[in-house]
Design a protein that fits this description.
655 residues, alpha/beta, 5-stranded mixed β-sheet, 11 strands, transmembrane
Length: 655
């Protein structure tokens, strides 16, 4: 017991350090977990002698991941995706199996071993791909949904593979009967789960929600995910599939977002342990010795899977970008490949050298996947030759502009961009918009809008839509990093334009202004202004006074609205909190260093904080006189970034 606890403690310590280090250098956390597993595994430090000891805990991470994914997919959406799941997914699995089977048979001259290798290589990583798609906000894209559909069929295809491999090793002649029986059991348990999810679970969570107890809600969520996974496991299917079905049924309920929030902490921690167990299985000596063969096999596997998926997807009428994007996302070997390899090894179908090489292929490909998916768009652009969007834009400008000079350019034609377009149309103000969503552009053009396809961060696109000549430019998407790229190009083309930038909050307000934004409109602060305008209006304040106050705040760049008091649910992520300004009310106790000192004697700028107000004897002074002396029990209201506020508190109390 003590040995197991110490090993786990060391593993967690290494994982914490590596995740921190990898995030500092902008690498995915999955790579940190894999490296932590390699360090803790039998071949390096030997803290974990047998990775199988943690197999159950790791599998729970996959179960919760698939449960949270299921929450995003309703049954109607799954029915709508059936062409991808049973068309594209089946073609990928069967095609990959056939090709890998022939290659492995030419190499080994053994059908049973070749099938085990082919089955492992044909499957991709559900855990890694879905996690990376979610982190990079690609789950809802067409290529992301295609990838998920293929992964779902792969999870189903694992079942016959896990049944066939032991039968091949035992030379049992009843393979067909056994397989049909297993599939019948699988269909039955899926029908039972869907029935329970449709009729029982919504009522159950309705009753639980009435109790208003967070612990009960979390416990019920975990219980449902694990029971569903356990039921499919008992009947020979993967636990992940059962959890996905349970999540999919609850995804149609009003509890969807609460369920996802409750499950996320458990999911992320257990998924981390899963990736460490993958790293533990890598035998470093064999991996290094056969690295050239492992790398060659990985390249062959990736080329075959990418070519097969992209070809079938294009044959089914999908766009080249989505077809290649889905294929590149699924190039790797998956976690169920390790299960198949382990099963084949247990039954004597694969030698130790082949097992080591297969694990090496899996670990290396899974380690590369986060980097590949986060750079998916530029990789796809290397393969797909787009028709030049400049030609289409120039053509539409000359044929559809009716000879009018554009007064406004809108970068981004989402909901906000479309609303602005309608108001501009109503006032007769000519404008043009550019957006990088082809479906949205197609629908908008069909509806009569003057919007063109292209990336606003590309100088040639901006030049084609006339960004050099317009007086007013609006960046309407609330993505600050992308807005910074667009601002850089816009200011090079048109230094004199008035550029209004929409931002989600004031986290990068200064950065956007320094990049060239004439005015930044943070959603959070503007929503606050709109709310207070309604409140003041209902309270009888004259409308002119309200408008004057709002105008003052906007002209002051929301100066009085930046700081806020943090709460227990405030996001304190270091990267985020360091860009926000918090308010801190500090009571000066008897003996504090600052007592007796005048406000102008204290170097507030040096400590990078502002004194926003002083409260004394229940009376507040928003702008205290500079010669005011601080007294015991005074409350000073400080504003600044969290670390500076903390340091200033120490300075005022102790000097």
């Amino acid at each position: 017991m003590n040995g197991t606890f110490s090993s786990l403690l060391l593993l967690l310590a290494v994982a914490v350090i590596l995740v921190w280090l990898f995030r500092r250098i902008k690498l995915p956390a999955i790579l940190a977990y894999l490296v932590a597993g390699i360090i803790a595994g039998p071949d390096v430090m030997g803290w974990i002698a047998d990775p199988d000891d943690y197999h159950l805990v790791a599998e729970l991470g996959i179960v919760l991941l698939l449960f949270s994914l299921g929450l995003e997919f309703s049954l109607p959406k799954m029915i709508a995706m059936r062409r991808w799941v049973f068309g594209l997914g089946a073609a990928q699995v069967l095609g990959s199996l056939l090709v890998f089977l022939l290659i492995a048979f030419i190499w080994l001259d053994e059908w049973a071993a070749s099938l085990a290798i082919a089955g492992a290589l044909a499957l991709s990583s559900t855990a890694v791909v879905i996690k990376q798609l979610k982190e990079s906000a690609q789950t809802s894209t067409r290529r992301g949904q295609m990838s998920v559909a293929i992964l779902l069929f792969q999870d189903i295809a694992v079942v016959p593979l896990l049944i066939i491999i032991p039968l091949l090793a035992s030379d049992d002649g009843n393979i067909g009967t056994t397989l049909l029986f297993a599939l019948a059991k699988g269909a039955a348990v899926i029908a039972v789960l869907m029935t329970i999810g449709k009729w029982v679970l919504p009522y159950l969570f309705k009753e639980i929600a009435k109790q208003r107890t967070d612990e009960l809600f979390v416990l019920a969520t975990l219980l449902v995910a694990l029971v569903a996974g356990g039921m499919t496991h008992i009947f020979g299917l993967s636990m992940a599939l059962g959890a996905f079905l349970a999540g999919m049924m609850l995804g149609e309920s009003q509890y969807k977002h609460q369920l996802e929030a409750d499950i996320r902490p458990f999911r992320d921690i257990l998924m981390g342990l899963f990736f460490t167990t993958i790293g533990m299985q890598l035998q470093l000596y064999g991996f290094v010795q056969n690295f050239h063969w492992i790398l060659l096999a990985l390249v062959i596997m990736a080329v075959i899977k990418i070519a097969l998926i992209s070809s079938v997807a294009r044959f089914m009428g999908e766009r080249d970008e989505d077809a290649w994007g889905s294929g590149i996302s699924l190039f790797q070997m998956g976690e169920f490949g390790f299960v198949i390899v382990a099963l084949a090894s247990t039954h004597g179908l694969l030698s130790k050298e082949i097992v080591t090489s297969m694990i090496g292929i899996g670990v290396l490909s899974m380690a590369m996947t986060p980097i590949i998916i986060h750079r998916l768009k530029p990789l796809v652009n290397l393969v797909v030759r787009h028709p030049d969007p400049l030609v289409d834009i120039e053509k539409q400008r000359t044929t559809g502009s009716e000879g009018l000079e554009n007064q406004v350019l809108i970068c981004g034609f989402g909901r906000v961009g479309q609303t602005m377009s309608r108001f501009l149309d109503a006032e007769g103000i000519t404008h043009i918009a550019v957006d990088n969503d082809p479906m949205r552009v197609q629908e908008a053009v069909a509806g009569g809008a003057r919007v063109y396809f292209g990336d606003s961060a590309r100088k040639d696109i901006l030049r084609a839509v006339g960004a050099e000549t317009v007086d007013l430019i609006i960046i309407s998407f609330a993505d600050d990093l992308r807005a910074l790229d667009v601002l850089k190009e816009l200011r090079q083309l048109n230094p004199d334009a008035y550029i209004i930038v929409r931002s989600k909050d004031d986290m990068r307000l200064t950065q956007l202004q320094e990049a060239g934004a004439s005015q930044v409109v943070p959603d959070t602060l503007e929503a606050s202004l709109m709310l207070i305008s309604h409140v003041l209006n209902r309270s009888g304040i004259p409308i002119r006074r309200i408008l004057a106050r709002l105008d003052k705040e906007r002209r002051n760049h929301y100066g009085e609205m930046h700081g806020f008091f943090q709460g227990s649910e405030t996001d304190m992520d270091p990267e985020l909190s360091d860009k926000l300004e918090f308010l801190k009310a500090l009571t000066l106790p008897e003996g504090a260093w600052a007592i007796g000192k005048r406000i102008d004697e204290l170097d507030w700028d040096k400590h990078q904080v502002q004194l926003k107000a002083l409260r004394r004897d229940d009376e507040e002074f928003p702008e205290p006189d500079s010669d005011t002396e601080l007294q015991s029990q005074d409350v000073v209201l400080l504003m600044g970034k969290p670390r500076y506020v903390e340091a200033a508190e120490h300075w005022l109390l102790e000097g």
